[in-house]
Amino acid sequence: MTLHDLRIKSLQHILRRKRIDALFVGAIKNIRYLSGFTGSSAFMLVTRDRGLFFTDFRYQQQSAEEVQGCEIGIEKGKRLSLVRRLVKSLGITRLGFETSLSYDFYYQLCGLHVTLAPAPNLVENLRRAKDAIEIKALTRAIERAETAFLKIKPFIRTGVRERAISLRLEEQLKREGCKHAAFDIIVASGENSAKPHAQPTEKKIEKGDFVTVDWGGEADGYYSDMTRTFLMAGSGLDEKIKIYGIVDKARQKAIDKVGPGVRTGEVDRAARDTIKKAGYGAFFGHGTGHGVGLDVHEAPRVSLTAGDRITDGFVFTVEPGIYVPELGGVRIEDMVTLKGRKCIIMTSLGRELEIIK
Fold it and tell me: Is this structure's pTM higher than 0.85?
């Protein structure tokens, strides 16, 4: 039995429990997770005892090479007509669907005269806990990202433009084997670093600037995500050094909280309380982390309102930050996973404040 067989069986168990005859799967990352298919167009119909995969002529050979655990079919004509025939031939009366489905296609499904059952996050929840093969891919994505960064790090100096650093890092990621960067790389210096999702600009790095770099790699379709913040040598750095220490302490407090059965909201609270007690609570407004896998942002969420209980194989970021307008911002981001009862920090780059001269 293949890994994809086991994943489909896990989904089928959920369908039986929820009394759903079949689930229409259209999200391409979920299709990849369930079948191994890496193309861009397909759908699946997972019944209580069968996994049916369909794509078009363009991917006929590719699907034959990649897809596991499913019966493969090739679409001809309109997708809705094929789904209608399948629903009728399989005797489906209660059809589940992903709530990420477009309204247009949902409206078409309404014409099938079956009971439509919203089934949010069934596959996404299965994806939360990574197996050994996924952990291996994530580890490679981290290694590629870290190697790429270390090779371009000497380029971070005063007078260099944010965008130039971003472009050099993106090129190096590809040289290390990534198909592409995990997301648009963030390089933010000075006042720009106070924007959590700043885009690289033509601004030159100046003395006394914080420089935040947020980037990620890729391996076998899985991603990594990490952030490091540096401080350029200059005058009047006392508060900036203080802020960095608070963020690093919050990061460590959150990691120390990770354990089996602990709710992700408790991990967030450990970081948030540390920053709040230091007097900077108003300057930390985003969640402490998020899951990473086939998507850069996926379940579980690590925020104050999140309630997922951490289990073996969860992989997520821990990324507290402080962002002070006109002064600058600090974020330190690691990826962690739970193995047995131990929290493993997957990222390895240093976290001590580095002042670049």
Answer: yes
Domain boundaries, the chain: 3-126, 132-356
Q: What's the CA gap between 239 and 243, in Å, rounded? A: 6
Task: Give the angle 122-123-124 at the CA atoms, nearest 5°.
Answer: 95
CB proximity list for 45: less than 8 A, separation 6 or greater: 22, 23, 24, 25, 52, 54, 83, 86, 90
- Rounded to whole angstroms, what are the CA distances from 57 to 46, 60, 61, 76? 21, 5, 8, 8
pLDDT tens digits, 154-163: 999 999 999 9
pLDDT digits (tens, 9 = 90+) for 268-283: 999 999 999 999 999 9
**Six-digit token string for 296:** 């850069």
In CATH, the number for domain 3-126 is 3.40.350.10
Q: How far apart are CA 234 and CA 215, in angstroms?
A: 26
Domain 132-356 has CATH 3.90.230.10: yes
- Residue of 160, 150, 211 whose CA lies nearest to 186: 211
The enclosing H or E element of 251 equals: helix 238-257
Helix (H) or strand (E) holding 187: strand 186-189
